[in-house]
Amino acid sequence: MLDTETTGLDPQLGHRVIEIGAVEIVNRRMTGEVYHAYLNPERDIDPGAVEVHGLTGEFLSDKPRFREVSADFLRFIAEAELIIHNAPFDVGFLNAELSRLEMDGLAAHCRGVRDTLKLAREMHPGQKNNLDALCKRYAVDNSGRSFHGALLDAQLLAEVYLAMTRGQDTLAIEQIAPPSMRSSQAGGRGSLRILAATPEERTAHAEYLAAMAKECGEAPAW
Fold first, then answer.
1. Per-residue pLDDT tens for 41-66?
2. What is the CATH number for 79?
3. Which of 15, 19, 100, 131 has minimal Cβ neighbours within 10 Å of its Cβ?
């Protein structure tokens, strides 16, 4: 999961990245590994942007430049699929920063980018799909989000994404039972192996039903 904060809305107008936050997920679990950096943009920050993220030029004046953290950042995202909300915005800014260093764009340093805003619009057409709306829809606590922050938003997005994609894991069900499950007699019925849900799976299922009940206004019928 990755998010940025910036000095304004358009990198083509010289606006810069001032914060990067990233959270690692492996096998649908947050590992605790994060990347976070505040950056000196070497330019003014639009007042409207300050109202969104609360980061001022004074606060950022002693922070490193992007060129000073680029190697660490690229090491963190190497071989990863980046999951970003409204990905074209963040990717555009990061590509502009890399271009200033005469480096290849973001796509050359990771395994791809997935846009959760696009995914949310496909899943919930005609509804609000900003991060706050998704937190509410999937019962993710965002009460500490008085300002946008790259690391905080990446952490919230991680929880939202896991909730959005719950149940989409591939279930490998074989069409033909293996020999060990077949009856030794022609026409007989082999024994079935019953796999009980783990405590973690039962908890995840309960959370999913609670989120569904909150969104629908009533408890599921099953």
1. 999 999 999 999 999 999 999 999 99
2. 3.30.420.10
3. 100
